[in-house]
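We were asked to recover a plausible sequence for a given structure. The inputs and outputs are reproduced exactly as logged, with field labels preserved.

PROBLEM: sequence recovery
POSITIONS: 344
GIVEN STRUCTURE:
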């Protein structure tokens, strides 16, 4: 506990600092004092600057915070329920289900309706969000049904991977049959971005995540019991099948919502739980759950900052940055754990 509180405070300070840096970075330089006045509601500042802060940078910061937290918590849940350090939010094919839903809408819109969805502006974005949610929830319902039928986590994990491969195969066929413009729109969506969400969409996204994340924390006790092994947890009165299903549903909904609004964001859900365990040196989910959410938010803001650093035209794909940051984190944690095992 003596280590936990200071580290939590450090993470909170890091999130605030990274949020401020993200508000400062952009093609148009806005002084810190002016940003503070705009955020405090001063309407005397430049209208252009106000639009940049309120309609672009602030939504991007809030989206990165809640999306990073959601993906990190989802990854922690998957790694716990499968007792597998390589499990992540996309392990059950839920992200692939989102991609498949978007592929059907984007890649078939031009073929069937004669008008490419990428040309429909906000209507097209809303259609992609709805399609992503439907695709992810459809796969999640299938996984939950299968989880009721099979006992072993390994079997469920293999089935999830196969569903992901099947979804990718269907997407490949749709790409082959679709016009180049629609394929480009789908590829851009697949790169992931925190800048797609703005206005009422951003408010809805943040509200949904602020509801879902506390609900995920209600599963802390069964997740701690799952760490003890199925037999021991069952002896303590835990309904293993029900607990596993609830954790999978919670993780799947978090992934579905984030993917719908931001596209498939990779590596945060896989890397952050390992990073959090290394920092806090505990397996207690009462600490890990909020700490993982904070670490995920901080890492997402850091990746968003790197993607928008001065010198880059526009912004780098978020997935490229998360992989560059996440892969070294995983390698460092693995080598450090291995070193500690040898030392013991």
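RECOVERED SEQUENCE:
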């Amino acid at each position: 506990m003596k280590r936990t509180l200071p580290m939590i405070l450090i993470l909170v300070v890091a999130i605030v600092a990274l949020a401020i840096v993200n508000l400062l970075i952009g093609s148009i330089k806005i002084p810190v004092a002016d940003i503070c006045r705009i955020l405090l509601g001063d309407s005397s500042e430049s209208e252009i600057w106000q639009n940049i802060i309120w309609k672009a940078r602030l939504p991007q910061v809030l989206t990165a915070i809640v999306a990073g937290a959601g993906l990190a918590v989802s990854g922690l849940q998957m790694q716990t329920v499968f007792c597998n350090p390589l499990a992540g939010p996309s392990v059950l094919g839920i992200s692939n289900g989102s991609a498949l839903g978007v592929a059907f809408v984007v890649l078939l819109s031009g073929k069937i309706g004669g008008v490419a969805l990428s040309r429909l502006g906000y209507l097209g974005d809303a259609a992609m969000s709805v399609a992503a949610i439907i695709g992810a929830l459809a796969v999640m319902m299938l996984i939950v049904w299968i989880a009721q039928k099979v006992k072993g986590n390994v079997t469920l994990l293999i089935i999830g991977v196969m569903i992901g491969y099947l979804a990718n195969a269907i997407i490949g066929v749709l790409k082959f049959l679709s016009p180049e413009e629609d394929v480009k729109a789908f590829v851009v969506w697949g790169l992931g971005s925190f800048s797609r969400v703005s206005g009422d969409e951003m408010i809805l996204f943040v509200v949904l995540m602020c509801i879902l994340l506390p609900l995920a924390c209600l599963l802390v006790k069964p997740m701690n019991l799952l760490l003890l092994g199925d037999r021991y947890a069952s002896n303590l009165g835990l309904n293993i099948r029900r607990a596993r299903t609830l954790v999978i549903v919670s993780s799947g909904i978090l992934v579905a919502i984030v993917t719908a609004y931001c596209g498939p964001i990779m590596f945060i859900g896989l890397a952050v739980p390992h990073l959090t365990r290394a920092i806090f040196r505990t397996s207690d989910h009462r600490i890990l759950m909020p700490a993982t959410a904070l670490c995920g938010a901080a890492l997402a803001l850091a990746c968003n900052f790197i993607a928008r650093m001065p010198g880059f035209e526009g912004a780098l794909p978020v997935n490229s940055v998360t992989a560059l940051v996440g892969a070294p984190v995983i390698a460092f944690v693995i080598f450090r754990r291995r070193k500690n095992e040898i030392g013991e």
